[in-house]
Amino acid sequence: MSGTAFIRIHPADDVVIAKQQLVGGTRLEGEGVTVSGLIPPGHKVAVRAIRAGQPVRRYNQIIGTAKVDIAPGQHVHTHNLEFASFARDYAVGTGTHPTDYVPVPATFQGIVRPDGRVATRNYLGVLTSVNCSATAARAIADHFRRDINPKALERFPNVDGVVALTHGAGCATDSGGEPLQILRRTLGGYARHPNFAGVLMVGLGCETNQIDGLLEQEGLAAGPQLQTFSIQDSGGTRKTVAKGIELVEWMLEEANRVQREPVPASHITVGLQCGGSDGYSGISANPALGAAVDRLVRHGGTAILSESPEVYGGEHLLTRRAVSQAVADKLVARLKWWEDYTARNGGEMDNNPSAGNKAGGLTTILEKSLGAIAKSGTTNLVEVYEYAQAVTAKGLVFMDTPGYDPVSATGQVAGGANLICFTTGRGSAYGCAPSPSLKLGTNTVLWLKQEEDIDINCGEVVDGTASIDELGERIFRLMLETASGRKTKSELHGYGQNEFVPWQLGAVM
């Protein structure tokens, strides 16, 4: 229930959320509370007395423990609320229900590859086995940039572009270790991604991440649409760049022979992201995206929830929706891995909320996670994947990734995501290649300030001018339009190449 100045999410909550800046003396109508001090927009106000050591609830869930006694009307934030772990009742499977599939799925204009895979974009990609070949790969792709050399793609209107996706790893690591396996899995996922009509894989030649080993691990074979070569074998940088340009020019002819055609929405796999979250994220954009995800799942599609540190403390809401004990166990096991991982590195799970998150009203990882999980909607959790693993299940799945958005989305795209939906409350300039990224703003102030980067304003929910369900329908329709070729704001700005960031684990030798 919302008032003119605040939002109450659940009757049992100890706090309400300010819709605007509240000054001391403001009366919260219906709550019987007078504000004490200044409360920024998106921040929490206590509506009942909370004793020190008592849990504090938002969404009718624990978001932390009071450090000191908190009086009604006081600002609740980092000065008086702290993270505290608590026992979660996983209640596996108690929240599952049959999926109500629509009889006639929606369609979009997709690109059907010869093997039946469906693409939402039509790129040629230049991947690198190691950081040492990044400059050569960039030079190859830059030759085909429409803003620098428009004539290069003049005859190929059906090609979205040539992109170089480079990284900072590939050497000085254990040749048989997990870090290299994950890098190869990520590169393999991109090499086989349907949004690439063809791929060049460029190496230096002497790196630990030998291209032959990458291909072997990933079950890939070099051929007309997957060309591999190295700087050392090609005779240096200039010759490598010339060879790469020649191969791309040859690939362009075939890549341009595509046509979009109607295909079912079941071919959409969307990666769910949130970055620069604020106090409104769990009220507007995230639940609105969740409503769109519910629609996509009912139409046979797939959604990938990720960012493991940003479901921590709220995972019991997901285990309730797990279709089996095994699926729930996989999720819990990954979160226990994260507890150990942060401890080994001298951190803790509550390190996750950023300075921007806190400025926007989020206090603890528990509060952030509860809002983030809203992106997943309400359907069953059908499978859990490790980073960059190929997603084969239909419906809502989880992929273990860090909370850092470029790293997380890179894993999702490697797993097969052909669309990204990214919610933000503080503002974002993120983009993705080869999969388009839609950005959803949580509040109208952000929309008015950064409209050139945001695709849809979910602040209408906070303003009271649209419902979550109405926004969910709009987002779902925008998903279909984007998958059909409509350019996102980030695509128009040229984002996507620098945001390829594989997860680097382990020691650098």
| Main sheet strand line-up | 19-20-18-17-21-22-23
Quaternary organisation of the protein chains: single chain
Distance N to C terminus: 56 Å
Chain-averaged pLDDT: 96
Report the total helices.
15
Tell me, briefly, the overall form: globular
The count of DSSP E runs of length 2 or more, i.e. the number of strands, is 23
Annotation keywords:
single chain; 509 residues; alpha/beta; seven-stranded parallel β-sheet; 23 strands; globular
Q: Secondary structure elements and their pairing?
A:
Layout lengths: L5 E2 L7 E4 L8 E2 L4 E2 L9 E3 L8 E4 L2 E6 L8 E2 L4 E2 L24 E6 L5 E2 L3 E6 L5 H9 L18 E5 L12 H14 L4 E8 L7 H8 L7 E5 H4 L2 H19 L4 E5 L4 E6 L10 H14 L3 E4 L9 H5 L5 H20 L10 H5 L5 H9 L7 E5 L9 E5 L5 H10 L4 E6 L12 E5 L2 H6 L6 E2 L1 H5 L4 H16 L5 H5 L16
Parallel strand pairs: 12-13, 12-14, 14-15, 17-18, 17-21, 18-20, 19-20, 21-22, 22-23
Antiparallel strand pairs: 1-2, 2-5, 3-4, 5-8, 6-7, 7-9, 10-11, 10-16
Helix pairs in contact: 1-5, 2-3, 2-11, 6-14
